[in-house]
Amino acid sequence: MDTIEFITTSIQTGVAQITPELAKHLLATTNHDNRPLKPAHVKMLSTALKNDEWMLNGETIAFSKSGRLLDGQHRLTACVNTGKAFQTVIIKGIEDEAAFGKIDTGKPRSVTDLMSLQGLPKAPLFSAIAKQHKAWLETDEDQRNRFTLFRLETQRAKLYPTSKQTRKH
User: Are 123 and 116 in contact (CB under 8 A)?
Assistant: First the structure.
């Protein structure tokens, strides 16, 4: 880390305490022409805040030089919804408004990535099982009964009539 040299720019960075009142103000005054809120993402962030799982992790809330919110509307909304304050890194003074189109365009970490980072062997398999289990739990019970193992096996046999015979050889 000693090899990184900072340069002088108009960008200011620091850690701030975001209260629900401040979050509401920022959303009302700086959140212009942003993408639509994703309710599921706000819910996930709100749950993390409620359960005290939020941590200062280096993710930023970013503002342009003109004061436009470039990144952080979901986190600010979660703060307002839960009434809980949080700490975050703030970046102010990003000069190019075109930077807005370049934020959050990377591939997010998947469940498989997170499981692998925790050292779970066969993470892709466990991730797939977890996704299937979640889908099963979120499906109405009367719909679940349509897809019993017997019915799935019957459908497979209809689609691939020789597959059992092929497996025996």
Answer: yes
